[in-house]
Amino acid sequence: MTTYTLSVFTTNTIGLLNRITIIFTRRRLNIESLNVCETERKGVSRFTIVIRHESREAVEKLVRQIRKVVDVLAVFGYLDHEIVFNEIALFKLATPLGGSPLNIKEINLDWNAKVVHWGLDYVVIEKNGTETEIAEFYQYMKNWEILEYLKSGRVAVGKTEKGLVEYLPEHEWEIV
Amino acid sequence: MENSQTMTVEEKKAEPAKFLTGAQAIMQCLVENNVKTIFGYPGGAIMPTYDALYDYQDRIKHILVRHEQGAGHAAQGFARMTGRAGVAMVTSGPGATNLMTPIADALLDSTPMVCLVGQVKANLLGTDAFQECDIIGMSMPVTKWNYQITDPNEIPEAMAKAFYIAESGRPGPVLLDITRTAQADLMTIPFEYKPCTEIVSYRPRLTPKQEQVEAAAKLINSAQKPYIFAGHGIIIANAQQEFDDFVRKTDIPVATTLLGMSALPSDHPNYIGWLGMHGNYGANVLTDEADLIIAIGMRFDDRVTGDLSKFIKQAKVVHIDIDPAEINKNVFADAPVIGDAKQVLKALLPLVKERKHETWKAEFKKYDEAEFEKITKRDVFHDGDKIRMGEAVTMLSNKTKGEAVTVTDVGQHQMVTNRYYQYNTWNSLVTSGGAGTMGFALPAAFGAKVGAPDREVIAIIGDGGFQMTLQELGTIAQSGLPVKIIILNNNFLGMVRQWQQLFFEKRYSFVELQNPDFITIAKGFGIAGHTVSDRANLSDSLDILLASDKPYLLEIVCEKEENVFPMVPAGASVSAIRLE
């Protein structure tokens, strides 16, 4: 199984998320993660979709089917080494009186994570990184009682000098 | 205009020239789009638009069908004849869900269609209101594009986009879900209709890239046994002349797909038949001999390829298609050419060499003889008592000189029609290919007749499929259009019965029908007709049908357990084609 990251640029239209995800459903493909956000171009949304698949050919077919959707501007499929990518994880840890104390220095310096919220008897820690880095940090966090854990979908940019502007000419797309 | 938001409805009505209601805007858009005919069925959520239509009857002809599915298939038949989007207008909820089958059918067969669907008032959306249904969600997988309109000001642009998307590139169905609010409310800006000619996220490539054309030409020029698969794309692109020129110059044998039929006249020296499950013997078997396949406007459907792992493995492939998603989808293309078939053929013509392929073409002839001996003789030139479907279609083909538009349903009669009707006129077959929708033919034939009133349109339907949409006899009778209807009646769901016989040990599971008296039914609708079961009377019966200047139903009682051959068993390699 290889991990593929698809960057899908679309016009910002209601229902488009549905129209894109049914392309996966119909082919029995499981979406590992999905992120949708606005871009530096007004009215253009960016979907970052992560899937795992054995066949590059099948992924290429999928890309062409997504490109076929009328409101889709462009689709790019990437392997991990072709992109810079990250996720955000949040951990809500119990910090009861008498519990084992957090080593903030270790969390900051060794794990490159930080406490973003102090509650009365809990803290929220944010960790940015790849799936692997977050998974390793999760193991470390298990030293405390994890009340809640969640992470975002992957966001990724291609390791090319090209920007969005090259396939979405500026005169048509106002820069935000 | 600056006061428009605060004006009362009465005040707005006082200046009708300035502001249209959404419903009037819909009508005006249809007029500006040169739409003369729409097919529809009214109901609650579309009533404001029907009210506006009342004032537009002199410019837009509305045909009242008997079921929304009929509106959809009629719009498809109309589109297939005219190349323009067929328009179907229905209400929300069940009206819209009844349109789903034609929409799915139109998507698979690349048929342009604009569906105007009513929706509950905007403030009721998501409340499970009466006749509310999430039709945007439901139609998403089967439309090329869909859009919900809640503001009347959006109507002109949405309508323009709908027609542009439906008709351009690879055509397909488009659905507009229009809330009652958007229909009933007044626009707050003056109506202005600008045809859509470009969408930034949708730019179908019509003119091919020169390097792709050159790569294709190189393969074509060096091939020893090239073979053309001609698809529906040639007809959609209206590339009759370009295709004829290309075939004449290269002298390459041509087989069509089901929907590509009539792209080349059947008496053309290069026409060698049709491909696929019930296609011709030579046309299928010799796919294994070709060294180059030139696929034009076709998508290598599984009914054409059989077992993909054994299909044209020895050949190189030139794949010409307007839809990039078709390239390498089922069959790898050595030389893909993205573009409109007409433009691509035009670009290819000067680059291909004039050749002769007499020996290669002759190979197909040998198979034709075997097929004639084993199949055609039995189907057409037999000495049995009962009428066989093949002889009925052959006789019809001869009497109409292969010039009629045949509209077929789905099943044995469909395959037999494609097999025995000798198409000699461009764009003469309307059938449900990709979806295989039973019940398609009767409403589609009606729509085809509306689209091509000067052509003889003959619906050929099985007794099973006829009963799925027979209420459209009412639509046909009311219009008075002389649609000719043939029921090939074998009292069976024949194709399923054939499969049960061949692949399920003749365990006939719910395929025999107790049929009504079709002629009495037709008469009830005010349509004349008669039944023929005697071979001796078949010719005269067809003459009566063809001579009628009104709609006419001819029921032909056929041999009960006739099988359609040749046949490639599902999932088998095309070379495993069976003649008996």
UniProtKB/TrEMBL annotation, chain A:
The Swiss-Prot or TrEMBL record annotates one GO molecular function as:
acetolactate synthase activity
Give the source's domain of life in one word. Bacteria
User: Which ranges carry the ACT domain?
Assistant: 5-86
Which keywords fit this entry according to its UniProt record? Amino-acid biosynthesis, Branched-chain amino acid biosynthesis, Transferase
Name a biological process GO annotation.
Answer: L-valine biosynthetic process
Might you give the EC number(s) for this enzyme?
2.2.1.6
GO cellular component, as recorded: cytosol
| Coiled coil start-end | none
Q: Which reaction does it catalyse?
A: 2 pyruvate + H(+) = (2S)-2-acetolactate + CO2
Q: Which InterPro entries match?
A: Acetalactate_synth_ssu (IPR004789), Acetolactate_synth/TF_NikR_C (IPR027271), Acetolactate_synth_ssu_C (IPR019455), ACT-like_dom_sf (IPR045865), ACT_dom (IPR002912), AHAS_ACT (IPR039557), AHAS_small-like_ACT (IPR054480)
Q: In which pathway does it act?
A: Amino-acid biosynthesis; L-isoleucine biosynthesis; L-isoleucine from 2-oxobutanoate: step 1/4; Amino-acid biosynthesis; L-valine biosynthesis; L-valine from pyruvate: step 1/4
The reply to whether NADP figures as a keyword in the UniProt entry is no
Described by its record, this protein's role is as follows: Catalyzes the conversion of 2 pyruvate molecules into acetolactate in the first common step of the biosynthetic pathway of the branched-amino acids such as leucine, isoleucine, and valine.
Report the family membership. Answer: Belongs to the acetolactate synthase small subunit family.
Q: Describe the subunit structure.
A: Dimer of large and small chains.
What is the name listed in the Swiss-Prot or TrEMBL entry for this protein? Acetolactate synthase small subunit
Lineage, broadest ranks:
Bacteria, Pseudomonadati, Bacteroidota, Cytophagia, Cytophagales
UniProtKB/TrEMBL annotation, chain B:
User: What name is this protein filed under?
Assistant: Acetolactate synthase
Which keywords does this Swiss-Prot/TrEMBL entry list?
Amino-acid biosynthesis, Branched-chain amino acid biosynthesis, Magnesium, Metal-binding, Thiamine pyrophosphate, Transferase
> Boundaries of each Thiamine pyrophosphate enzyme TPP-binding domain copy?
409-556
E.C. number(s) listed in UniProt? 2.2.1.6
Which cofactor does this sequence's record say it needs? thiamine diphosphate; Mg(2+)
**Pathway, per UniProt?**
Amino-acid biosynthesis; L-valine biosynthesis; L-valine from pyruvate: step 1/4; Amino-acid biosynthesis; L-isoleucine biosynthesis; L-isoleucine from 2-oxobutanoate: step 1/4
Catalysed conversion reaction: 2 pyruvate + H(+) = (2S)-2-acetolactate + CO2
The similarity annotation says: Belongs to the TPP enzyme family.
| Cofactor stoichiometry and binding remark | Binds 1 thiamine pyrophosphate per subunit.
First-tier enzyme category under EC: transferase
Extract the Gene3D superfamilies matched here: 3.40.50.970, TPP-binding domain (3.40.50.1220)
The Thiamine pyrophosphate enzyme central domain, residue ranges:
213-348
Q: Give the InterPro entries listed for this entry.
A: Acetolactate_synth_lsu (IPR012846), AHAS_TPP (IPR039368), DHS-like_NAD/FAD-binding_dom (IPR029035), THDP-binding (IPR029061), Thiamin_PyroP_enz_cen_dom (IPR012000), Thiamin_PyroP_enz_TPP-bd_dom (IPR012001), TPP-bd_CS (IPR000399), TPP_enz (IPR045229)
- Tell me the GO BP annotations in alphabetical order: isoleucine biosynthetic process; L-valine biosynthetic process
GO MF entries: acetolactate synthase activity; flavin adenine dinucleotide binding; magnesium ion binding; thiamine pyrophosphate binding
State the organism of origin: Arcicella rosea
Q: Does the keyword Nucleotide-binding apply?
A: no
